[in-house]
Structures are given as C-alpha cells and as structure tokens.
Amino acid sequence: MDEIDDEFEVKPGRIGNRRTSRATSYLRRVRKEAQKAGATSRQASSFTGGRIGRGHAHGATVAGRGRAPGQRRVVVKARIVRIKSGETGAVRAHLRYIQRDGVTREGAPGEVYDAATDRADANAFTERSAADRHQFRFIVAPEDSAELTDLKPFVRDLMRQMERDLGTSLEWVAADHFNTGHPHTHVVLRGRDDGGGDLVIARDYISHGLRARAAELITRELGPETEIEAARKLQQDVAAERFTRLDRAIVRDAPDGHLDIGARPAKEPARHAARTGRLRALERMGLAEEEGPGHWRIDAALEAKLRRMGERGDIIKTMHRELDEAGIARAPGNYAIFDPERDGQRLIGRIVGEGFSDELSERRYVVIDGVDGRTHYAEIGSLLFNDSPLVRNTIVELRSRVVEPREIDRTIAKVAGAHHGIYSDRLHWEFDPRASAEFVAAHVRRLEAMRQDGMVGRFADGSWKVGTDHLDRALRYEALHRSRNPVRLAVLSWQRLEELPQAVGATWLDRGLVSKEYGLASTGFGAEVEAALRARRQWLVDQGLAREEGGQMRYARNMLRTLETRELARTAADISARTGLEYRDVKAGDTVSGVYRRMLTLNSGRFALIERSHEFALVPWRPVLERVRGQVVTGSIGGGGISWSIGQKRGLNVG
Hints:
This protein is of the alpha+beta class.
C-alpha cells in the first residue's frame, strides 16, 4: 500500500486522583495491569500502556491494519482534560466555545445535542460533570463531510458504536461546526462509565479504533471512494505547499534520504504519476533533487519544512480572511508574524480578527493592525476560563514573555534564604519593616500562582516552603507559562479609535500624548492614529487642557487625572439619577466597603461599582472581582492598588 493515514497522538491533560493519598493512583493502576500482562521493570521499554482500559481489543486489532481500498478518511483528534474537584469553569468555557456565534451553515450560534435530543442542556451536563475526574474531548472530521446534509446521524451512530466497543453507556454532548472549509464535530464525553467509576479508554482505541469505526460509518453512509474521487484528491496534493499523504509515503520509502522510484513502483498508474509529479514539485521547492533517472535525493528535513510552509500558508489565508471580513485593505507584502521567541518584542495595534489556531487545545490567535503600518498575526496561547474575551477593534499591546525571574522573586528568595527556605508575611516585614500591605500581598499572590503549578508549598499557618533554590523554580515557572501563553496582552483602549478624539475621559490617545511614546508609520493604522491624535489635540485645546506654545503643545498639569475625574463624575451622575444613591469619591488612603455589583467599561478604563445601602463608589476594576459579584467586599486604597477582603475569608488582595 503506497500511503498510510496520518499518525495520531492523544493529547492528555494532567490526570491525577484527587482522593486521599491511600487511593490507588492512575499510574499505579497502569503498572499493576502491566505486571499482570507480564511487563516487568526490565521490560518497561517495550510496554506502552496502549492496551490499558476499555476498548483495547478493538484498538489493538486495527492498530496494525492498513486502510481498506475505497475506505474514506476521517480525522479524529482527542484530548483528555483533568477537572479539578468542583471547579466547572473550564468545562463551561469549552461548552460556550463550541456553541459560539457563527459556527452553523447560516452563521448562527451552535447548539449542543446528545443521543436523544437536538437541543441538549449544556448547563445540566456541566453540573453532572462536576464530580468527574476527567473529561474526553474529540474533534471528528470526515474528509468528505461537506457531502453530508446533517452530521448528527453520523455522530450518533459513532457514539453508539463506541458504547458497544467500550462495553458501557456513555454520556456526551456534541456541536457541529461549519465555519471552516471542512465541517467537523466537537464531542465532549464525561469521564464516567455506567457504573459510576472512572472511564478509562485504552490509548490504542482512541488512537486507532475510534478513527477506524468513524471511517467504516462514513464509507457506509456515502459509499466507497471512487477512483475518480481518489485521483482528484491525489492531484490536489501534487502541488500543495504543505505536508501531504504523498510526502508521507516518500519519507517512508526513503529512510536514508534516497528514493529509487523504480525499486518501489506504485501499484496503480495514477498513483505513480502523482508521486512523480510530487517529486517534481518538491524539486521546484528545493526539497528534492533528481540525481539520475528515477533516483532522487530527499531533503532530510522535508517533513518539518513542509509543515512550516503549510502553517505559514494557513496564517496568510487567515489574515486575508480576517481583514476582508473587517473591510480593511492591506497589502500582503505588509503581513508579518509576531515572533514571541525574540525577547523585547512589542506591538501596538487594533484587533481586526481573533480565533482558535488549535481548536482542540483552544490555543488562540489575534490579527493586529499595527501602528507600524503592518498587519501582524500572533499566537497568544490559551485563555483561562475567567479571562476577558477578546473584542475586535479594541486597541492592545503585545509583548513577548521574557523567561527570567522577576524582582518579586528575588525579594522572596532573600527572605526565604535567611530562614531556611521559609517565607511568610511576618518574615517579610522583619526583612523590610517599611513594606506596605499591598506590596507584601503581591508577593503572596505570586507564591499562590506558583503553588498552583506545584512549584512551592503552603503550610497550614499560611507560611510558605519555597526552598533555597527559589530563583530556579521561578525560572521554570516562567518557562512553563511562556509555553502556555507566549505573549502578554494588555488592552489599551476598549473603545474604537474613531470614538476617542471627542471622548470624555483619559483615553489611550491622551496617555500617548503625555508620554510621547508613539512611533507611528505614515501608512495603515499608523496614519489613522496620527489623524486621531491631531483631532484629540484640538479637542484638548478647546477644553482648556492644552495650548500651543512656541510650536509645541503644552498640556495642563494632572491632565489625565482631570479627564478621568470628569468622566467618573458624569458616570456617577447617571447612576445616581437611576438608583437614587449618592456617589462617594474615594482617594488614596480611603477604605471602601460594600457589595460588588458590576464592571463598567469607560474611556478611562474599567471600574468596579461598589454599592452600599445609601451610596456607591467607583474604583479600579480587577478580573478577580468577578468571582465575588454580589458579595460584600472591603478594600483599602493605597498608592499601588487596592487590598481587598471578601466576607470573612482570607484577604483577597488586588494590586
């Protein structure tokens, strides 16, 4: 057989047993089953664990079996995601994603369905999943899915077959997506079997068995692939600037980098012609060279180079599509890819497009119309379930994440170094009696974030075991987060550029005028920003906040504070008129207490509405407040931020 299907790799999340330490861990169960199968520690190198779990028999049967003639292809991607005890935020976020707007054929929001109904209750499914240890997420994409008028019957047949193969009933929801060139289905499967135990599926079944079952079903539905269809698909691969099935066969038949097509002739004339045509195409790309009639030298990095070409081609198509949908014309010669590996990279511009570069792992991208006159594509990694969603036309700053310990880590290391690797707020104040509560709280937040990734430990009394190698741990923590989120993204303005020149409040334009940080190109978005700045300068002059003197603009002292105060006063007047509550202005040194009601997006930034029985206050908002909406909070306002405490719980500090 001259071609093989793409290799499949399961992407597991970190699955741990959150029960007591006496409970048998998943790894121990795997080892126990391995010993039963005759795999000892001396034989560990030959044991893969692929047959541990349900479905191993079918998975092992098809693992080494080739693709049958005429069988249609199906791509199946899988990920196993750990669910923290009682924390369903990530599950809700994923279900919101697969139901997002614009994924149906009509461009409407998606709807989840299950085995029995076309409109399943996603919230109820999430609540039932709260006690699950893990969850399976699949993307099922038949190559010829565009020929199906409805994917639901195919998916339901596949899940019924999966139940028979695994010997248990399954609880799942799914959503069909038609927003790409290849219609596909997202399936979310609970990690519980019908007996209430953890559902463990053999890796062989996930990698091979499920795909084989899907291929059988789609072939039965559409009929075997005809010779004409197969030839058409091969011809599409001949000139493709990406890694294709023809390339996979070439790499397989040329393990030493040399291919003799006479020694390994294709069984079918059409396939032989396609292979020869592909070699000629690779020759034009500089990836193959004909050393003699029928004898070819293949580039050792053929697969890696073609995959990079394919990724770049996909990026260019994505940028063109996003700009076209936004109604913005930019020359392809001004396209650029933001490289987070280059330390010190900084980009400012407006978001013209955003989406998922990897739907399975939910890694995102943004397309930025930069002030440098170029259009940039940037991978920003995975958003957490409580992160603010990206909004088109907002103005943002991207910076590459630098992998190095922060100054806050150096302070923690100094405190812990003098106390045998132990840190606490009391020890910090002994080290630096002048440190403010907000400053110390920032160090505690840093340690709490590192604890979530197992870098440090916390004692019952609130002190921390950070070790004497804390700076090395901080470096590993930063490297880990760079792999998850290669860039730092900060919103500079939630308002569109067109709204800023006449806006009341301290806008992004004003901050730029005061700091004089702009480096604007004379084309593209840079030219639009320059025009907006000219209009803003004139508005400030009209408001008495700026004047021209000696050919230069002079701005009023505390202009930014004055603009922010004006906007807050106007906003507060509107709230007072609607609610009858009195506005309380707060400043550094004050304490504010009340119920956190909601977040307000203003020209000067985002503010939290804190309400008491007869009055309210507007203070700088932080994302962590969304966890306690509707609850009583108390904040002490300092020069560097606000230190919050919520109810009777430990202080929630926001810097």
